[in-house]
């Protein structure tokens, strides 16, 4: 008995020693792991701070470049010089935007600063295009450019001072981010912050008198304010009437659609949704602006031929049958006069663009898009926003440039096969009256060229591809 107790005691001692050894080893391993993880985290934070520092230095450098280029631009007189400076402004502004978005400043909502960086390069490129086309820059445009120059100089000086303060005080971006978060949690009565955060806020507030820029570019202020032409001076419709029109466009019963939050934009609309369908109807005029349907299973088969209907060229293809289905849909929406301009095949669907004509002139700004399922011919999408925004009865005059003279602008390596008159939109949603030339290159590439019908300037070039029916599509 005593011998048995001794064995148990020895066993207990051995077990205890082993347990202690195991715990010590575990603590050592965990300690080493935590130490390595801490070192890795420290290295990560260090790299992150280095990246932030590089972004801040890059922002200051690019803003300095923008300021200097803008000052040179004020005195530029030749199209070549204006074009060179504009390209430099575009590069510096793009780099500055990248640097700014890389900094942890999202909660400060630097909308005006971002707007300046977006517009300055875009505005310069618009002036460059105008200068190269042979047009003189107006006094107003030069005054706006000079105003941009002043803002650019002030912005560069402020960011440089902030950079020096952050470096001198050893402020990390982690600290800066904490200050911004604390600022966001305070009420509006709190005193304006000091230091780097206050400097960034002051940067944003310095744009209080920033001018509105209206020019031929996608970020022009006039685009944000443009009222849809077809919604002017038309009566408002009721919610129930809008739901009835939405149901008709979607091919469902009105009871299948539920109303959603109204869209408050430049095109105020009632919104409706049902089983995998969404429809927007304008409050003014009651136009269906958008209809979208989704399907759980992507289509695999092709749309079968429709009895008694073939395309005008006699070719029977999935795309041609989809175009016919889209045309039937538009006829039901009182848009039968629109003509198909080009289409795109993707994911079992065919997206067809239609445009109206006035006389013999094609109106590209007034596009309507219809999406058709290739397996069933079901209309999956309808987008008339371009049509509602831009369509009106234009005053179309004779071209200032004869067709033969415009034809001479087309490169000799292209064989022109057809031509017609068209109005095309510019990047800034203005319009240009053009000759549209359909041409074939030596390598078989189909090209559409748009030559200004008044000045002979080459406004746009589109490259087309050939589908299985031999039709060229964009």
UniProtKB/TrEMBL annotation:
Q: Which residues form the Sporulation protein YpeB PepSY1 and PepSY2 domain?
A: 198-296, 320-396
**Origin superkingdom:** Bacteria
Instruction: Report the InterPro entries cross-referenced here.
Output: YpeB_N, YpeB_PepSY1-2
**Region feature (Disordered):** 294-317
Q: Example GO biological process term?
A: spore germination
Q: Which residues form the Sporulation protein YpeB N-terminal domain?
A: 42-173
Give the protein's recorded name: Germination protein YpeB
* Natural source organism: Ligaoa zhengdingensis
